[in-house]
């Protein structure tokens, strides 16, 4: 962390001409299980990862917000008096959207000073590892402190969610931001999307020499299936006449097979069983440890492939290769739109697995996935 923190301080000083008044950071995140359960009032199991977005901020004497980043050539500037969703564009919509959303949840933006903000990050972008959540969370905790707003964790998560929906134009669940706010080292967050409760689950990866290996096939899906799957879930809920798929027990679902088309039944089957798998992994981690969760992770992937039609040949090849060469379990990240997946592996087996991936993908005439290790890390902090 020291390098990126130093880089962020130096970048701020170079652009704005003075030392920042504070430094904050938030991690990327990875959903181990339950990605789409978030939208069905179910459970999600996620980790924060050891890749972070760092925000340096300085208080101004006027009402201007100025934001700059290592990823942008220009400084975005706007007065707090003119801060509206249709006035911010591009990457700056994320940090400025958070400022706007704070005003929407009750912060008196007429009483706060302007700020200079500089952003640096080593969270991979566009691969399902929460780069936007890390940015929004880091900015949210910085503004919460700089403006002395005293919002709690759930309040900050709602601010980030509102910013992404109303300003960026992307609908997300609260489970995207909760891990980036409260996660602890070597822990996962079990989040209940109905009650909004969250529990820290000890992973024990360190004690067992386990790591998460991210595999990026580089093959993005041509079309995003998330909207289609959302519509299918809602159709199944209507036909089953239940509040949400969270309310259907796995053992009862077969009783309703005739009420749904074959396609809708498979979609419902994935969500209903996935919600149970999340709870099963949490229980297994508590009672047996991380070496016993691989089969559940792989069962989740099989359901994503067979019931949710979310996999791809490249993802299937990577997962089969990983499981054949020591991975305890492997699963795509999200719905496979970015072509990335993760494998739970012993760190001592990583090199062997990378060689096996190179060989398997070469045999199929396609480029081998880029790979990198991520570890469960802590949530947002002020440095």
TrEMBL record:
<comment type="similarity">
    <text>Belongs to the GHMP kinase family. GalK subfamily.</text>
</comment>
<protein>
    <submittedName>
        <fullName>Unannotated protein</fullName>
    </submittedName>
</protein>
<dbReference type="GO" id="GO:0006012">
    <property type="term" value="P:galactose metabolic process"/>
</dbReference>
<dbReference type="Pfam" id="PF00288">
    <property type="entry name" value="GHMP_kinases_N"/>
</dbReference>
<dbReference type="InterPro" id="IPR014721">
    <property type="entry name" value="Ribsml_uS5_D2-typ_fold_subgr"/>
</dbReference>
<dbReference type="GO" id="GO:0005524">
    <property type="term" value="F:ATP binding"/>
</dbReference>
<feature type="domain" description="GHMP kinase C-terminal">
    <location>
        <begin position="285"/>
        <end position="358"/>
    </location>
</feature>
<dbReference type="GO" id="GO:0005829">
    <property type="term" value="C:cytosol"/>
</dbReference>
<dbReference type="Pfam" id="PF08544">
    <property type="entry name" value="GHMP_kinases_C"/>
</dbReference>
<dbReference type="InterPro" id="IPR006206">
    <property type="entry name" value="Mevalonate/galactokinase"/>
</dbReference>
<dbReference type="Pfam" id="PF10509">
    <property type="entry name" value="GalKase_gal_bdg"/>
</dbReference>
<feature type="domain" description="GHMP kinase N-terminal">
    <location>
        <begin position="97"/>
        <end position="181"/>
    </location>
</feature>
<dbReference type="InterPro" id="IPR036554">
    <property type="entry name" value="GHMP_kinase_C_sf"/>
</dbReference>
<keyword id="KW-0418">Kinase</keyword>
<dbReference type="InterPro" id="IPR000705">
    <property type="entry name" value="Galactokinase"/>
</dbReference>
<dbReference type="InterPro" id="IPR006203">
    <property type="entry name" value="GHMP_knse_ATP-bd_CS"/>
</dbReference>
<dbReference type="InterPro" id="IPR019539">
    <property type="entry name" value="GalKase_N"/>
</dbReference>
<dbReference type="InterPro" id="IPR006204">
    <property type="entry name" value="GHMP_kinase_N_dom"/>
</dbReference>
<keyword id="KW-0067">ATP-binding</keyword>
<keyword id="KW-0808">Transferase</keyword>
<keyword id="KW-0547">Nucleotide-binding</keyword>
<dbReference type="InterPro" id="IPR020568">
    <property type="entry name" value="Ribosomal_Su5_D2-typ_SF"/>
</dbReference>
<feature type="domain" description="Galactokinase N-terminal">
    <location>
        <begin position="12"/>
        <end position="58"/>
    </location>
</feature>
<dbReference type="InterPro" id="IPR013750">
    <property type="entry name" value="GHMP_kinase_C_dom"/>
</dbReference>
<dbReference type="GO" id="GO:0004335">
    <property type="term" value="F:galactokinase activity"/>
</dbReference>
């Amino acid at each position: 962390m020291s390098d990126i923190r130093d880089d962020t301080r130096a970048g701020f000083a170079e652009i704005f001409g003075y030392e920042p008044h504070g430094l904050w950071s938030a991690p990327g995140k990875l959903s181990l299980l339950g990605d789409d359960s978030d939208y069905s009032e179910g459970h999600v199991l996620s980790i924060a990862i050891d890749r972070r977005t760092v925000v340096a901020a300085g208080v101004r004497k006027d009402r201007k917000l100025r934001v700059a980043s290592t990823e942008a050539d220009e400084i975005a500037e706007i007065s707090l008096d003119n801060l509206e969703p249709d006035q911010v564009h591009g990457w700056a919509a994320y940090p400025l959207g958070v400022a706007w959303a704070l005003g929407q949840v009750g912060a008196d933006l007429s009483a706060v000073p302007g700020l200079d903000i500089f952003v640096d990050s080593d969270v991979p972008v566009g691969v399902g590892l929460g780069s936007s959540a890390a940015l929004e969370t880091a900015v949210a905790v910085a503004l919460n402190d700089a403006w002395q707003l005293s919002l709690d964790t759930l309040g900050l998560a709602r601010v980030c969610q509102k910013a992404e929906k109303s300003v960026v134009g992307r609908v997300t669940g609260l489970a995207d931001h909760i891990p980036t706010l409260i996660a602890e080292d070597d822990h996962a967050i079990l989040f209940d999307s109905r009650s909004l409760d969250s529990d820290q689950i000890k992973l024990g990866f360190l004690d067992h020499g386990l790591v998460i290996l991210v595999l990026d096939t580089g093959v993005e899906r041509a079309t995003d299936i998330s909207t289609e799957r959302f519509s299918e879930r809602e159709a199944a809920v209507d036909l089953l006449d239940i509040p949400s798929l969270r309310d259907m027990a796995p053992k009862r679902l077969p009783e309703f097979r005739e009420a749904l088309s074959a396609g809708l039944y498979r979609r419902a089957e994935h969500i209903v069983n996935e919600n149970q798998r999340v709870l099963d992994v949490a229980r297994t981690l508590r009672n047996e440890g991380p070496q016993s969760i691989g089969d559940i992770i792989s069962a989740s992937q099989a359901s994503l492939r067979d019931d949710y039609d979310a996999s791809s040949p490249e993802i299937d090849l990577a997962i089969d290769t990983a499981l054949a060469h020591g991975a305890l379990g492997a699963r795509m990240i999200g719905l496979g739109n970015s072509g990335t997946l993760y494998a739970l592996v012993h760190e001592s087996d990583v090199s062997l697995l990378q060689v096996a991936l190179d060989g398997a993908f070469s045999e199929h005439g396609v480029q081998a996935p880029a790979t990198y290790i991520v570890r469960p890390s802590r949530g947002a902090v002020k440095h």
